[in-house]
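Response to reviewer comment R2.3. The reviewers asked that we include at least one raw input/output pair. We reproduce the pair for 2'-deoxycytidine 5'-triphosphate deaminase here without editing.
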Amino acid sequence: MGVLADHAIRDMVARGEITATPEVIDAQVQPASLDLRLGTRAWRVRASFLAGDGRKVADRLAEFEMHQIDLSNGAVLEKGCVYVVPLMESLALPEGVQAVANAKSSTGRLDLLTRLITDEGVEFDRIAPGYHGPLFAEICPRSFSVLVRPGMRLNQIRFRAGQAILSDTELKALHSESPLVDGTAMIDQGLGFSVDLKPASGDLVGYRAKPHTGVIDLDNIGYYEPSEYWEPIHAKDGRIILDPGAFYILVSREAVHIPPDYAAEMAPYLAMVGEFRVHYAGFFDPGFGHANAGGAGSRGVLEVRCHEAPFVLEDGQIVGRLVYERMDSRPERLYGADLASNYQGQGLKLSKHFRAQ
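Raw output as returned:
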């Protein structure tokens, strides 16, 4: 019982519980999740929606469609607009397996809101046991317009059998056996983490997205000049003021470790912790930051958006928590050790599309 590992996901494909056109490729299979691929067509819709009980996404598209876009030769999804894209993958889940989806790390760092919706779905990114049907990505670029093509992987799906979440007591025991953070662990409904606004060297603490920028082609890796898209944020006194509506990339003080037999998901700390939201591209794979996978702790990158009022964010303020889950078995490949992993050992870092600073 637990989060299904890479070899179990391959077994699901072999049994026809995960199907795709074209077929699932090995590069999609991560240690504890499956990358999902965009299909060939997008629908520009008037507003975000859920299918709802007894309703199909295709029926709701007929209600909210503005126009359709052929992605075959690449197409721009414009900032501030909402799109629905059928994915190449479909599911036929057994009754004992549920699924949860989340944006991939690079997607979140571009403020590219990407959520999974399904037929008869009443929640984003959550799929009930026994679901049989297609998958759709709802995409809303919030800071940058992006160029996409069929087969691009913006979100990922994780499969669970039974109850996998560790209690605080179990998490404390795991931390004593295999440290989950460097230093003191703040454990309360998960492993708490805080924002770093007093870096060990210099005063660069983050980046704020510029409001009027060019298009980002998601196939271009290490291509874009950060200064054309991001404004560096400096703090000399351990605090910054978040501007309403602005999007920030910050970093946690804690260096996180995910042991090989566990996975984790980032979650909000408290809904009313402040006038901001940490947008969590939430999956942390087995081996992230862990010594067995060539890591020495990796800090969590925080994707932060301020709401209605300016808000003072101070060094050490708790902004989120990691919920740890058991794997059903150890993955064949670990994050950072057996896979090319962009963010192993990371500190403050923009998405992989930007040149290193």
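The chain is about 10% helix and 40% strand. Residues 6-15 form the longest helix (10 residues). Further pairs are available on request from the corresponding author.
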